[in-house]
């Protein structure tokens, strides 16, 4: 059975899951000396009951339900003539179905979506997931006391799957405070509350299983929990033991659509500033750098002379972008941005997005085997700008030249036409990659253009061969190749030992 991640809604979004998550074990503490020392308390013990906390928080969690009009499908050409045996029990069913399809005046169907939300302000502001209300014609909210109110959409942010609603009421509503998701530790208790399907509040408890999880989005920052989270709980809050919101329940890992103890919540430290921007201006503005980035593996890091795989590798720089104006170059590894470490590539988009637009910041980059600092003035990300993260389907690959089954050729008019290369392209073309070779297995294909070896330009197959031989003679384990393919640039650490 294939596992999947689904948003917790009646129409789940399915994506692939990274490999299984690791669990840590705590070693026992041994007493020493004539008298046993007290055992340190590694974590607070489980509360005797969550009842008091749940009773206080439940009124702040609401059911969100929406309706939208589903258009009738266009009839394209004559309806098919279904031949069914006389007296078939399906005969009338298919006649009724086809009559509805042929009737252009049939009333539009109404579709309903259900989810959860929570009140953040007594005046009626409610947070939920964007996928709960996306495409809705009408949005309604059912409070804990069964009061039903019409809601208006203040704004939404599909990039983080967040939305803010507003209901009008003469009474003060029970609101819950934001907490600091950065303070919660793996193993701490959490409480998840939802109001699924209008059944009323549902409370589940568990521990925080992991932090900083990503599902492939540029701005993902998910908390993982083993607290049971089920469909209809999307948009509901996850609380710490102080009763503060430290996450918004959004997705589950499940083989069948039900909870199996792996749920994901958007971290409050990501959600809170997004919601504040929506509340203040109806839209979210993010910082923009203008680079496409690639993840470093250990081989590529070694090729760049880094002590370990860290930072974000710049695979290309957009023209007239803040990065281009700051002289950030292809092949730079961004290690720090505005004083914040970049431990891995997917952190950079989040760090840049949180940086105030127009702010001049220092960026520490690794270039030519040493650190340098450049000054960058952060721009504003527009909806039509290229996303900051590189295409995740572009692999970080490794390969050799001859011993890995690669055949090289110089560029000419015929090869440029065959592989769609423009006249300005310079480099050495991979014309063949043996299917049983390590290079092929790692993604090197005919049509890839080798533009640099060891960060030095190459124009002929001999240039490549000479630089590979020099690397071997110099007792190097690997040499770095710069490849261009389909308009994208990537870096490949080629083992030469």
Automatic annotation (TrEMBL):
For the keyword Transcription, the answer is: no
Catalyzed reactions per annotation: Acts on substrates that are at least partially unfolded. The cleavage site P1 residue is normally between a pair of hydrophobic residues, such as Val-|-Val
User: A Pfam family matched by this chain, by name?
Assistant: PDZ_2
- Compartment(s): Periplasm
Q: Which UniProt keywords apply?
A: Hydrolase, Periplasm, Protease, Repeat, Serine protease, Signal, Stress response
Q: Which PANTHER family match?
A: PERIPLASMIC SERINE ENDOPROTEASE DEGP-LIKE-RELATED, SERINE PROTEASE FAMILY S1C HTRA-RELATED
- Record's protein name: Probable periplasmic serine endoprotease DegP-like
């Amino acid at each position: 059975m294939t596992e999947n991640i689904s948003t917790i809604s009646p129409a789940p979004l399915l994506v692939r899951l990274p490999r299984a998550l690791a669990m840590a074990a705590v070693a026992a503490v041994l007493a020493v000396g004539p008298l046993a020392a007290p055992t340190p308390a590694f974590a607070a013990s489980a509360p005797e009951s969550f009842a008091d906390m749940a009773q206080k928080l439940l009124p702040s969690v609401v059911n969100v339900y929406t309706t939208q009009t589903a258009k009738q499908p266009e009839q394209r050409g004559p309806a098919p003539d279904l031949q069914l045996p006389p007296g078939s029990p399906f005969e009338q069913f298919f006649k009724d179905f086809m009559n509805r399809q042929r009737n252009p005046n049939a009333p539009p169907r109404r579709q309903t979506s259900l989810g959860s939300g929570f009140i953040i302000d007594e005046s009626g502001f409610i947070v939920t997931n964007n996928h709960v209300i996306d495409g809705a014609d009408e949005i309604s909210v059912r409070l804990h006391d069964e009061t039903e109110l019409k809601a208006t959409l203040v704004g939404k942010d599909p990039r983080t799957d967040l939305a803010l609603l507003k209901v009008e009421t003469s009474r003060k509503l029970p609101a819950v405070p934001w907490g600091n998701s950065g303070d919660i530790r793996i193993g701490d208790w959490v409480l998840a509350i939802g109001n699924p399907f209008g059944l009323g509040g549902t409370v589940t408890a568990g521990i925080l299983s992991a932090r900083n999880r990503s599902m492939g989005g540029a701005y993902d920052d998910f908390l993982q929990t083993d607290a049971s989270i089920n469909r209809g709980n999307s948009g509901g809050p996850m609380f710490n033991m102080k009763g503060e919101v430290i996450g918004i329940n959004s997705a589950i890992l499940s083989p069948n659509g039900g909870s199996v103890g792996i749920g994901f919540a958007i971290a409050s430290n990501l959600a809170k500033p997004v919601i504040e921007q929506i509340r203040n201006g109806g839209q979210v503005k993010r910082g923009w750098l203008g680079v496409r980035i690639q993840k470093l593996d250990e081989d590529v890091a070694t090729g760049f002379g880094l002590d370990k795989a860290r930072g974000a590798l710049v695979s290309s720089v957009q023209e007239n972008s803040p990065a281009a104006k700051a002289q950030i170059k292809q092949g730079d590894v961004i290690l720090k941005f505005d004083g914040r470490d970049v431990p891995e590539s997917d952190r950079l988009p989040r760090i840049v997005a949180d940086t105030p637009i127009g702010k001049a910041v220092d960026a520490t980059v690794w270039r030519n085997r040493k650190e340098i600092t450049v000054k960058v003035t952060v721009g504003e990300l527009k909806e039509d700008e290229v996303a900051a993260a590189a295409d995740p389907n572009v692999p970080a690959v490794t390969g050799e030249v001859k011993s890995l089954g690669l055949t090289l050729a110089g560029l000419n008019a015929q090869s440029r036409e065959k592989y769609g290369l423009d006249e300005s392209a310079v480099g050495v073309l991979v014309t063949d990659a043996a299917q049983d070779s390590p290079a092929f297995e790692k993604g090197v294909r005919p049509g890839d253009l080798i533009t640099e070896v060891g960060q030095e330009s190459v124009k002929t197959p001999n240039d490549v061969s000479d630089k590979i031989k020099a690397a071997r003679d110099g007792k190097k384990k690997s040499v770095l190749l710069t490849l261009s393919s389909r308009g994208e640039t990537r870096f490949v650490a080629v083992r030469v030992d």
